[in-house]
Amino acid sequence: MKNIILVAGATGDLGSRLCKHLLKNGAGVRALVRAETNQEKINELRESGVEIVTVSFEDEAGLVSACKGVSCVVSVLAGLREVIVTAQSQLLQAAVQAGVPRFIPSDFCTDFTQLQAGENRNFDLRKEFQFVLETSDIRATSVFNGAFAYVLQYDIPLLDTKAMTITYYSGKADWQIDFTSLEDTAAFTARAALDNTTPRFLRIAGFQISPIELAALTGRIFGEHFELKDQGTLEQFSAYIQKVRTENPAGENQLYPQWQQMQYLYSMFAAHHLTLDNNRYPGLNWQTVETTLQEINNNKTAQNGAGI
Question: Which of these CATH numbers, 3.40.50.460, 3.40.50.300, 3.40.50.720, 3.60.10.10, describes 4-146+179-203?
Fold first, then answer.
């Protein structure tokens, strides 16, 4: 009998990749979509072989019906409290009522179990949902992938290709930072969704690299010298983030305000994987840091050539 995996958030970038890998691994895939979801994205999923269920998360009976016969629910939802806590809780309750044995929450990020409350607003919401999840009658598995590798293309302080600098914090020049591509995260999660023996947490990283190693590698790939910049202690950075947050209360209702972006950078230097579960599933080809940086360099060269 074919496993049916229910995916919430299937029209997003990670969610659509996850559906592709689930289908590739022989699973039946059922996607929850809202009535207002982009029809073009829904059509793409349906044409690929995904079963579409249009339902509101406030529709308890509809959610329970959608969960019937499912072996695992995977949430790839993104948002603030109304999504990460409220909507996921509604989905979780429906899964329990329908007798679904397993649930994978939308915890695709740094291992927030190592962080203190207040260090990352978006992770705090996941911790809040984690409490709900762990007091429910269902087996849960969180996949921690560190940071998504694509963030390196946005000239974040860690790798600023415009200023030609690499930022680190005092005592953290050799700190190993976890990165995983969207594609690799989706491929691994698909295998985990079909694995009935998963532990509570799975930790993966396509690559781990320190600021010192990043400086040396960018020099070779970009052919230019990147300056390592010590930006002070993490405690000083945390205090600055709190100041910016206090001065920008409107950001509390935004998914990625400036201070939240800073909190993500802080988290990269405050928590990392000590062991990896990359080898749990054979046949996965992890995107390397060299490939990631080469793509960034190619894009930069193309933009410069186009006068952007």
Answer: 3.40.50.720
pLDDT of residue 171: 97
Measured CA to CA, the distance from residue 119 to residue 87 in angstroms comes to 23
Locate the domains of the chain by residue range: 4-146+179-203, 150-176+207-271+285-305
Strands of the sheet containing 51-54, edge to edge, are 51-54, 28-33, 4-8, 72-75, 102-104, 139-140
Q: What is the pLDDT of residues 236-272, one digit of tens each?
A: 999 999 999 999 999 999 999 999 999 999 999 999 9
Burial class (CB in 10 A: 0-12, 13-18, 19+), 60: middle
289: tokens are 């840091």
H or E element, residue 165? strand 165-168
Q: Answer with the residue of higher pLDDT: 226 or 308.
A: 226
Name the CATH topology of 150-176+207-271+285-305. UDP-galactose 4-epimerase; domain 1 (3.90.25)
Q: Look at strands 142-144 and 102-104 and give their pairing.
A: unpaired
Average pLDDT over all residues of the chain:
96
| 30-52: pLDDT as tens digits | 999 998 888 999 999 999 999 99
Is the confidence at residue 308, as pLDDT, over 70?
no
- SS3 label, residue 203: strand
